[in-house]
Structures are given as structure tokens and as C-alpha cells.
Hints:
Number of strands of chain B: 12
CATH architecture of the largest domain in chain C: Orthogonal Bundle
Radius of gyration of chain C: 25 Å
CATH topology of the domain at 154-276 and 338-367 in chain B: D-Maltodextrin-Binding Protein, domain 2
Oligomer: heterotrimer
Order of helices and strands of chain C: EEHHHHHHHHHHHHH
Helix content of chain C: over 70%
CATH class of the domain at 154-276 and 338-367 in chain B: Alpha Beta
Amino acid sequence: MQGERYGWRFVLVLIAAWTILAYMLLPMFAATPVSLTPERYLAMPKGEISFRHYENLFTNPKWLNSIWQSAYIATIATVLAVVTGTLAAIGLWRVSSRYTELIRAFILLPIIVPAIVSALAFFRIFADIGILDTVPGVVLAHTILAAPYVVITVSTSLANFDLKLEQAARNLGCTMREALWLVVLPNIMPGVLAGAVFAFILSWDEIVVTLFVSRLNVFTLPRRLWDGMRDQYDPTIAACATTLILLTVACIVMHLLTSAARQRRLKATETT
Amino acid sequence: MTAPKFGQDCVEIWLSDLKAGRINRRQFLTAAAAVGASPLLFSAGDALAAKPAQIVHSNFGGDAVTCTGDLYGKPFTAETGVNVVVDGSGPLEGTIQQMVEAGATTWDCCDSDCFSAIRLGHKGLLEPIDYSIVDRNKILAPYTYDYGVLGYWYSFALTYDTTKVPGVPTWVDFFDVEKMPGKRTMWKWMNGALEAALLADGVAPQDLFPLDVDRGLAKIDSIMDHIVFWSAGAESQQLFLDGEVVMGNIWQTRSSVLERDTDGRVTWSWDQAIAMPAGWVIPKNNPAGAEWGNRWIAFMQDPELQVEVMGCFGQGPANPAAVDLMTPEQRRLHVAAPENLEKQVVADTYYWAENYDDVLNAYLDAISA
Amino acid sequence: MTASAGSVAIGTGGTPRIAVSPYAVLILPLLALLLALYAYPLVKVLWISFSDPELGFGNYEKLITATGIRRMLWTTFKVCIITTSFSMLFGYIVAYAMAHVADRHRLWMMLFVLVPFWVSVLARAFSWTTLLGDKGIVNTELTDWGLIEHPIPMMRNQLGVLIGMVHYMVPYAVLPLYAAMRGIDPRVVSAARGLGAGPFEAFWRVFLPLSLPGIIAAGVLVFILTLGFFVTPAILGGGKTLMIAEYISAQILTTARWGVGSMCAVVLLALVFLLLGIMSRFVDLRSLFGAK
């Protein structure tokens, strides 16, 4: 391994670590062979492979509809969560008192409260105000669940941002809005983007709350998967699971490569 | 413009007058008769009960969604002009209760076990069945209730793998792991399981209800290590397809699909299967109105349609007349064909209405130990 | 903090002056959303545990009287403890390795940790079902190699739930542990070695205690998350492992017993907050949640 030299004890640790990592990653590809079966039921392909279940995933109106619905619910929820979450994080950062710490704790509640309990709360309030099983209902639920993550990521960025910069902008005659838009926001963009990624994936994957607040009109991709696993073991589920996993791998590889490249650049500029 | 169309047009105008309170009902009917629109009275009658845009039927998903929508829904739309939407998200008791109590009922008709219909009716969560619309004679006695009707049958039948089980097993064999080794499967949500256990323990079918719950649970516990529990229909099928179990207490609709898919390797026995009368209920304040809920139920009572639906996903017709329309092969698969029903034990709807939640919780406690 | 440039003073004369920053307005949209659509119904749901079917502590008496509920809680607790222990052990090994390897090597390890972290819980549960069944990949391979005669039951029982849950939780253990270990100055360990400690002693006496806050934080985090697990037990447990989240769902949806269901929700929440309270004694929660 490229000149890495370790003592035998650490080699043992490494072997253990890689065994665990194998347990982490490899099982997720178990669905892949099943997804290539030519049969209509779940089975390992025997010799012949087929992409018919992938075709079904992307042509069957039910699956397509779910993919599309999940995508736009996640998009709207992400926008709402990022806007409200970022504003709240800036507000908390700028006001910063004993009370805001309490408010911060309160805002983080949806992360701490188990999903099943949140589901009950949404189930009741949405029924009362008549938005059960509507896109706005699911979007609102996902927004509330995702916004705290945005607050966290943005707060982390703000912690590294010098308050004096913003004050200087204000002293130079910027309005609050200008100061936020021109000075603060560009500086905390990584936090905002990270929050957006969290929010999108949370909404895209959310199942427990969605199960309670949707029925007929809203049928997100996770619900389609959940339903499929209970009703008809259709290999399309395997195709969908495989696609989701491969997408995730691709995104993370890209992320790791770009961040590694950035670090290398940073190091290069430090040494020169 | 042709005459009937003209007549219809007049009726529609008067109808809007009627709704707006400009003329009364009798004036409306007289006027309609005057333009020779009497054949239209039926459809005008529809409109009187404020013809809804759609009927939302709720069931437990899967093939039931497309089969109900295509075979009951489409002809209903053709006849009445009212669309039928099928929601497969599952009309569990708690969901119905929640939506009714919140005043947000979105379903017009729900699939429901008959015992559930009684329970929900007692809680005031359902619209009463209007037997001037729904025909009692099209329902096997005595399964007509104030708040629900028998709509279809299903059954928990002893299903087995013929390559691993010699002969036709009984519940006694099911609970005898030494005589017939191998895994068995039962439903995680109880129904059918306690009845089978007690029958295996020597309780006579006529003495089954009220259930001796503790005795049944003890019997189940005696083979707990050999039981896997299925939670959804697909799972019960997969367990047999994978050869993971040799016997199962599963929905007979799934048994017949298994028989087809495995070319008879897996089959089932009607003997002492637990027949479950199930049907349709109308949640309180349903959007299309109680009358239309009842009409939809009445429409689904058609024996020919019921036989077609059975062909689609196995749901056993409730209308006794349906049996006469069946091919011998269909009769063989039908829970309520007299020759099959007499072999089975019918679950006591009143017992379950009274005890469902307590016994279910006792069961869940026992199996998850 | 000191009065900032943009603060506005409300109140005049004798009344005390309360400074309200205009920035406070920024918090309002989210706060309003949370109050109206989250906190309010949450309180209502929790209140049901005291009011349904009748006012009083009837539902809470069941915690003592109903053996089934006690057993369900015990199952939940047991599964959570085992899951947390294994996740922490696995997580610690991986994090330790990650903290001590070269950059490129670490990148690979990170990939293996992050992919399961982000992959949909349903996709994972599904993959496990194809692996763990009696005719699943694992049992088929083991039988083919002649290692076992009869398939090992790994699914639709507690073992299946544990395998799936540990798999889910390891990344949640690795990430905070790794962050904590990166904060440990390697020179401290070198110093211990320099003073004559063996490698194991240096780890046991120096590195491990230094990573303790990370262990506690990660452990409590993992435990809290496992308490509320719903999907994995429902899919891999096969009815034999009934945990609190699925129990609540069954109470609400299947038997419509809101009182018992919401009582369990209160118990679950109380446990979560209790654990957070314990955790706050060891680590600064605010640093965990980005306030600092």
C-alpha cells in the first residue's frame, strides 16, 4: 500500500476495520443480481440476465409517477427548509442570548424526536386542517423534519464567520438585507449547500412519517418500495434499490474526489 | 338536437332550478314527465342525491386496486357517470377512526372484516347500510349488519408443500413438528392463528368460540421455534416459493396463486380452514354521501361482476347466486361454495367484534417474546 | 453579547429596556412553522395518553400491569443495547484505523462508511432480505461450501433485526468517533511511548481515555436513534421482534387505541430526553448541534 508501513498490531486493526467495512458496503449489492433476473419473481438469474425490471422501473407509470413525485416533493421541501433554516440560523447567531439557546434547542426537536412520534403529531394536525394525503402536507412535514439539519450546517459555517465583517458592512451603510445577501450569505454558502443536500436526501428517503400522512394522492418512491415489499415481491424493487445504491455511490465518489482535490490544492498553496 | 337530448337538457335546467330552490321536487318531477323524460328519472334521481364526481374505494392494495377499479369501477362509471378511484393504502380501523373523528373522511367505501364493521359501527364511525338500496337477498345470511355487509370471503387455509409433506395435513400435523419436521408460517396479525391452534389442541369446531386465548397461545408457543411469521401476503408466497416453510396458515387467495405458480407443488386444504366473512362499510360523512356509498355497494353485489373479480384476484363472492355462474374450477377455489364452506370453520364475527383488540395485543405480546 | 449595531430598544421611561434585535425576525418563519404544525400537535398527542379513554393515569398503569407492554419495552431495550454495543465496537475499530492511516487510504475507508450512511434504509433492508433468508445468498453459499447442513435462520427473528440495525448504525458511530479521535494530539501518545509505555498501554491509558467523550457522545446518539427504529424490525423481524415504534404504530392504526399508543410515545420521548440529559453531562450538546 504505497509505502504505508505499520506495526503488526495495527495491521490486525486494519484487517478488522476492513472486515467491518466489507460488512458495511458489500451486502448492499446483494440486490443487484436479483434485479437482473429474467423471471417475474425474486430469484437469482441462472445464466441469462435481463434488464426488463430496469425498463419497468423507468417506463411503468406507477414507478415513474412515484419517482417524479418524490423528486418534486424533495425539491420543494429542500427549498423551504433551506430558506427557513438558513434565516433561523442567522437569526440565532446574530441575536445569541440565553433565550435563543432555548429556541435553538426547540428548533432541533424534530431531529431528536423519533420519527414515529413525529408521525403521530403530523397525522393528527394534518387531518384537522385537511391536508392529509396532499402534496403540500407531505412537503410541510418534510420541511419541518429537514430544517433543523439546515440550521445545524449553516450554524457550523457561521461559527467560522467573523461577526465583525457583517457589522462592518452595516456600519458602511448596508441595510440588514444587503448585509445578509452580499456579505453573510456568500461566506456561509458551503453550510447552506450542505444543508440542502441533507434536506433533499432526508425528504427523498423519508418513509415513516410519509406512511402516516399520505394515502392515495401522494405515493412517493419510498412508499412504492415499502408497498412493493409487502404486496408483491416484484424484482422491480431490486432494480430500484440497486439504482438508488449506485446513485449514492456515484455522488459520494464525486464528493470525495472533489474534496480531496481541494485539500491537495490547499496543501499545494501552503507549501509554495 | 334530438328529442331525448332536448328532454335531458330541460331536466338539467330544472334540476339546477331545483337545487337552487326555485322549484320544488314535485314540480320538478311533473315537469320532467311532461317532456317525456321519465326514462331519465333514474339518472335524475342520481342527481337529486347530488351526483358526486367520484367514489373513492379503499382496500388493502396490490391486485385488489386494479381488479376493483377495472371490474367494478369501470362498469359503474359507464352506468352512472361517476368515476371510481381505488386507494390501496389500507383502511385499518385506526385510520378510519382518525379520519372520521377529524371530520376529514376521504373514503366512500372501505374493505373491512365483518367484525371490524361491527366494531366501527358501535363507535359511530360508519354510515348505516340502507337496505332499500343494498339488497339483502344478494348476501348470504346472516351476514348483513346495520353498518356493513358481507362483500366477499377469504380464508386462512392450511397450505403445504406437497414435496415435503406426505398426504393432506391437518392442524394437528401443523402443530406436530416431530411427525412433520420443517418450518411453518402464520400471520403476524393473528387472525386464523388462534383458531387453528385450538382446533389442533382438540377443541371441536362448534365449541371454538369464545376462544380459550391462553390455551391457544400456549399451543402456539409449543412450536414457537418452528414458526416464522408473515406480515404481508407477498411474504407468505415468497416463503413457499423459496421453500423456506413446509406448511403455512395463509390466505387461501395466495394459496391458489401459489398452486398455479408452482404447478401444484404447493396446495391447500379446505378442511378446517378458517373462513373470514369480510365486506364493505361506508365511513361516516363520506364525501360522495351515504346514498352513493350504498349505491356503490349495491352495484358490487352483481354476481357476474363478483365472479369476474374472483377471477382477477381470488376474492370470494358474497352473493350466493355467484356460485351458479362459476365453472367447476372456479367453484373449487371459492371459499363460500357450499361444498367448501361446510368443511371450514367460520370465524365468529361477534366474538371478534367484542375481543379483537385485547386478543390481538395478547397475541402480539406472546409471539414477540 | 453587547448591544449590536442593529438592535432596537423597546420600552420607554421606567419600564426595563428589552433589546430586540431585528435579526430575531429571521427566526420567526421556522419558529412559527414548528409551533403550529409540530409542537402543538405533539403536545396534543402526548396529552391523549392522559385523556383517552378516560382522564387519569390509566394508560401508565399498564406499564406496570400489562406484561405484554413490559416485555415489548424490554425487547426494545435489549435490542438497542446489543445494537449500540456492536455498532460502537465496530465503529471504534474503523474510526481508529481511519485516524491512523494515510490520506488516500482514509479516502477509501470514508467511501465505505459514507455509502451505507446515505443509502435509503428501505433499499438496505431489501438487500438484507435477499441475503439472509433460508434460500438467501449467505445460506446458499455456506451450504454449497459444505460449511453448514441446514440453513441458519437469520431473518424473521431477532438476529435479522440485529444484523440490519447494526449495519445501519455503524456509520453513525464512526463519524463522531473519528471526529473525536482527530482531535487527539498524536504527540500525546508518542510522549507516552517515549516515557516507556508499551503500545497497548499507551492506547489503554492515554488514547482511550482521551477518546472517551467521543465514545459517550456517539454511544448515546446511536442508542437514541435505535430506540425509534421502525423500518428494519418491521421488515427483518418477522413479528418476533416487536419494538416500541412498531408497537405504537399497531396501537394507532390496527386497534385504534390512541391512549396506549401515545403513552408509549411519551415513554419513548422521555427516554430520549433522559439520555440526552445524561449525555449533556459529558459532552457539550451545543457543539454537537452546531451552536459553537
